[in-house]
Design brief:
By secondary structure, the protein is mainly alpha-helical. It is built from ten helices and four strands, in the order H-H-E-H-H-E-H-E-H-H-E-H-H-H. Bound molecules: protoporphyrin IX containing FE and magnesium ion (MG).
């Protein structure tokens, strides 16, 4: 019986410290966190500095590789896009709270954060996330459900936030964010992901290893993301034609 109890205790301990060498711990007082559930998660596991400060290119590339199997080229591109978050000229690092600056990288109509107009734009907001989750109508999320939740959040913001801002550049970032759970936890070819894993991730800012997830074996490249993103983009159309843009052209032709 002692052996069994010891075995169970060890099993439990190894589950808690999983992924190997990267146990999860919540942010401590003074640690910085931001609007990105994944950057927060990587900090909570110590893939990024747990204090959320001084994230250099090297830190970001290593964290994205070790935590999510992103290839260095992709991670470098992401760092290049992120560095404007630090307002200092020629900055070589950013902190997680640099990401909070509204309308720099952080934008309206997030899936799990309130718009800056309504208050805190970077802490997880259960009310906002529940609105998003309404559109996740089956246990396996597909591109359509993910796209619907994004479009719905945009309509809410456009309707109720008088300062609603969402540019074509925001749209590119937003599509990348909406597909991100598929990249981290799902099937990137089918563009599907288990809802339970995604909810656990957003609500706990923790990798869903206790639910059976593990880092994917295949390396994630920019191309992986671009392909999956285009499925989400197509699914944001509210038309039912298989090719909405084509049928629009046909209609224009008919009018002439
Ligand atoms: C959102 C930064 C990598 C998943 C955001 C936002 C920022 C950001 C500023 C807030 C946008 C908003 O207002 O909603 C970054 C940076 C990264 C990074 C600087 C790396 C250098 C990742 C990765 C993933 C991810 C690798 C997952 C694979 C998400 C998701 C959101 C988000 C799901 C949307 C949150 C929401 O709408 O509530 N990220 N991110 N991010 N990010 Fe990241
Ligand atoms: Mg936002």
């Amino acid at each position: 019986a002692t052996t069994l109890a010891l075995g169970l205790a060890l099993g439990r301990a190894s589950e808690l410290s999983y992924p190997q060498g990267h146990p999860w711990a919540p942010a401590r007082r003074g640690d910085l966190r931001g609007p990105c559930p994944m950057m927060n998660t990587l900090a909570n596991h110590g893939y990024l500095q747990r204090d959320g400060r001084n994230i250099t290119r090297e830190n970001a590339v290593k964290a994205l590789a070790d935590g999510l199997n992103f290839n260095p080229t992709l991670a470098n591109i992401m760092f290049d896009q992120a560095i404007i978050a630090n307002p200092e000229p020629n900055a070589t690092y950013f902190t997680l709270d640099h990401l909070n600056q509204h309308n720099v990288l952080e934008h309206d109509a997030s899936l799990s954060r309130a718009d800056a107009y309504f208050g805190n734009n970077h802490i997880f907001n259960q009310t906002v996330f529940d609105e998003t989750r309404q559109y996740w109508v089956a246990p396996i999320l597909n591109a359509s459900m993910l796209a619907n939740s994004k479009v719905a959040r945009m309509i809410s913001s456009k309707a109720f936030n008088p300062t609603y801002t969402f540019t074509l550049i925001t749209e590119e970032f937003s599509l990348g964010e909406v597909v991100a759970p598929v990249i981290a936890f799902g099937d990137t070819d089918a563009v599907i992901v288990n809802r339970t894993l995604v909810e656990y991730f957003f609500e706990n800012e923790r990798l869903p290893t206790s639910l059976g997830w593990k880092r994917r074996d295949e390396i994630v490249s920019l191309n992986t993301i671009l392909k999956a993103t285009s499925a989400i983009r197509n699914a944001t159309s509210l038309f039912t034609d298989s090719d909405a843009s084509l049928s629009k052209r046909k209609l224009t032709a008919n009018l002439h």
